[in-house]
Write a structure and sequence with these properties.
It is a single chain. With 223 residues, the protein is α/β, with parallel strands linked by helices. The chain has one domain: Vaccinia Virus protein VP39 (Rossmann fold, 3-Layer(aba) Sandwich). The chain has six helices and nine strands. The longest helix is centred in the first third of the chain and has 17 residues. It is globular and about 55 Å long. The chain starts with 10 loop residues before the first helix and ends in a 12-residue tail after the last strand.
Length: 223
């Protein structure tokens, strides 16, 4: 792997970066062994291109195409951990972005459906999944705020963009006993990561931590 147009990063240095990457995840609260193993298997460097490629193993969000971002790895890990994914689960991801989150989920569950409003992001992510021989991800260009009624219900739902409230259509598509993790907030400066569990009586809400995500926007993107 090269860091853009410059000389390739020596393999020893790359291995050290990846080791520090995993140490940082643990130190920031990602302790679930299955989640850490999945994040070790999915090379974030494959999902960060151009001038930011050299920063792929730093714990920071980075810009990608269509004005979107690839999330901070520790936040990806904490969201995945909160989702409590089981090997037989079917998971809906709203907001494909770079495809990094979906690739991690693919190592933890039976099937991932990932939706994004930008055709370019969906196409590029699908290409990466093929290169990585990940066969249990279905990529779809659609308005994710409405979920995927034809594939519902889902065991788990993860939303990687902030909504003012947990979207009603997504709540309806969650199985009883299912879990949804979603950033909620009315501005990009004040958001909270929420874990929603569907019970026999309704929904339980747990506030996890402050976060910053791009907003969840209705409709399809122009790219």
């Amino acid at each position: 792997m090269s860091n853009g147009p410059e000389a390739p990063v020596p393999s020893e240095e790359l291995a050290e970066r990846k080791m520090r990457f995993l140490f940082t995840l643990r130190s920031r609260g990602v302790t679930d062994a299955r989640v850490l193993t999945a994040m070790e298997r999915v090379d974030r460097g494959l999902f960060v291109r151009g001038i930011f490629a050299d920063r792929a193993y730093e714990d920071m969000p980075l810009p990608i195409a269509c004005g979107q971002t690839i999330s901070q790895p520790s936040v990806v890990g904490l969201m995945t951990q909160a989702l409590q994914v089981n090997p037989r689960d079917t998971v809906l991801e709203v907001g494909t972005g770079s495809g990094y989150q979906a690739a991690i989920l693919a190592h933890l569950c039976r099937r991932v459906y990932t939706v994004d409003r930008y055709r370019r992001l969906v196409r590029e992510a699908a290409d990466l999944f093929r290169q990585m021989d990940i066969a249990n991800i279905t990529t779809i260009t659609a308005d994710g705020s409405f979920g995927l009624p034809d594939q519902a219900p889902f065991d788990r739902i993860i939303v990687t963009a902030a909504a003012e409230d947990p979207p009603g259509p997504l709540l309806e598509q969650l199985k009883p006993g299912g879990i949804m993790v979603v950033p909620v907030g009315q501005s990009d400066t004040l958001q909270s990561l929420i874990k929603v569990t569907r019970t026999e009586k309704g929904f339980d809400y747990e506030e996890l931590r402050p976060v910053r995500f791009v907003p969840l926007v209705e409709g399809l993107g122009s790219e």
